[in-house]
Design a protein that fits this description.
binds ligand F0G, alpha/beta, Rossmann fold, single chain
Length: 448
């Protein structure tokens, strides 16, 4: 593991020792967030890791029986910080998620190299596990009694699970009524103290900031830079799965904007170390009703952000005031990507299309396919280019959404714009019949 790391403020560039990191993870000079940086990687060539040796080592570890080697995060531990002992690693066997082809969507959109990195195939069903394993390991190392997060659901599920594994108690703040049942069920199942606050996600974040100031709880929202270090390993996996070639484009959903930042960091670091020759263009897609980054880029060239009152059925990304917006702007600009927004109907249709590939995802993840369609139409992505969509959560996280879609309850007729016929063609009814072979055969005949 990499012990020679520092934390650098992304606002004023001041570097601090890990032990000097403020409890709210914000710079005391300018209030901005920190990045983990590795000074050795910028020194003379001899001090840098050897890319061929790393690629070989990481592959070898997949056949090891050690938990840290088998984890799709800790397998890459030369790229990760931790304060001290390897015995503090808390792992549920995260990462190592599949990179699927999407042949039907690819054909429909005339993109022959279309793939989906399915982070929903993590132990608690979302990408949050990859960051939680690193951040909870640090929390254990620091001797934390309590960890806490505000969440739209997935972070809380992941935190509750990893905290339980570590024997640390966890506090979850959730927006009342606006989270998918699967996620709430997980927080309860894994034993978190679960509070539903009469506010939205942004309100929960504000309350938690005050709680962290007043009580000794270790903050596990994605302002915690160790979360992003774990999350960046998905970028390493994508490159490895493509034999260390990178795709032309990576499309990521945007909520609190940590995942896009983390993946960008991963790709940029790989290029810096010579593990890959280039970086993909990284584009971030938001729901139209929760689009502060899109506005920040289009209206202020990424120089400032104005919070919005967020509204979308993709509750995971119902976020109006994203913490990591500066990091995400940097990634989009440095990699030459774009930001895009998509409607509720576009999200719903894209989700059904991903489902019909035999893969499925939760609504927030489907913004990637919906965004791809728009970027193709605008000529920002060429049909001959290779594209990876980042699917962030499992379809079982939010089964209510899927059932309501197929029953014709969402999206509302008025929201469908030009998509009504496509949406209707993807709907499947659950048909109630008597327990009779004749009736089953009649239904089979009917759809034949
Ligand atoms: N997709 C899913 C399924 C998510 O749960 C989230 C964020 C995102 C995308 C957006 O990622 O915030 O890094 O830009 N969920 C958080 C949570 C906020 O509390 O679970 P981001």
């Amino acid at each position: 593991m990499n012990e020679g790391y520092q934390l650098r403020c992304i606002g004023c560039a001041q570097e601090i020792e890990p032990r000097a990191l403020p409890r709210n993870f914000r710079c005391e000079q300018c209030g901005d967030l920190y990045d983990v940086v590795y000074p050795d990687w910028h020194g003379p060539k001899q001090t840098r890791p050897n890319p061929s040796a790393l690629r070989w080592l990481w592959k070898e570890r997949r056949s090891s029986l050690e938990a840290a080697d088998r984890s799709g995060v800790w397998r890459f531990r030369e790229m990760l910080p931790i304060l001290g002992a390897e015995s503090n690693i808390v792992s549920l066997g995260e990462g190592n998620t599949p990179l699927y082809t999407l042949p039907r969507s690819g054909q429909r959109l005339d993109v022959s190299q279309l793939r989906a990195k399915h982070q929903g195939m993590n132990p608690t069903g979302s990408f949050k596990d990859t960051g939680m394993t690193t951040a909870i390991s640090v929390a254990r190392e620091l001797g934390a009694d309590w960890v806490a997060c505000a969440s739209t659901g997935n972070t809380s599920a992941a935190m509750a699970a990893y905290a339980a594994r570590a024997g640390i108690r966890s506090l979850v703040l959730l927006p009342d009524g606006e989270i998918a049942w699967g996620k709430l069920a997980q927080a309860l199942d894994y034993g978190a103290l679960t509070l539903q606050l009469r506010t939205d996600f942004d309100g929960c974040v504000r309350v938690l900031a005050e709680v962290v100031r007043r009580a000794p709880v270790y903050l596990l929202n994605s302002v915690n830079p160790y979360r992003l270090e774990g999350q960046k390993t998905s970028a390493l996996e994508i490159a490895e799965q493509l034999e260390w070639q990178v795709p032309d484009h990576l499309i990521v959903p945007g909520g609190n904007l940590a995942n896009s930042s983390a993946l960008g960091k991963g790709f940029l670091e790989m290029k810096h170390l010579g593990l890959t020759a280039r970086v993909p263009r990284i584009s971030v897609v938001q729901a139209q009703g929760a689009n502060p980054l899109v506005r920040a880029m289009n209206e202020f060239d990424g120089k400032k952000i104005e919070p919005v009152e967020a509204q979308t059925r993709a509750t995971a990304i119902r976020i109006g005031n994203p913490a990591s917006w500066r990091k995400a702007v940097r990634v989009v600009q440095e990699t030459g990507g774009w930001v895009e927004e998509v409607s509720e109907a576009e999200i719903a249709l894209a989700k059904a299309e991903i489902g019909a590939e035999g893969i499925g995802c939760e609504p927030a993840s489907a913004v990637t396919l919906a965004g791809l369609k728009k970027l193709l139409l605008q000529g920002k992505i060429g049909h001959e280019e290779s594209v990876v969509l980042v699917l962030t959560g499992h379809t079982l996280k939010d089964p209510d959404y899927t059932i309501q879609y197929h029953r014709g309850e969402i999206p509302a007729e008025a929201e469908m714009a030009g998509l009504a016929s496509e949406i209707k063609a993807t709907r499947r009814e659950a048909i109630r019949i008597d327990a009779s072979p004749d009736q089953v055969l009649r239904e089979l005949e009917r759809v034949h």
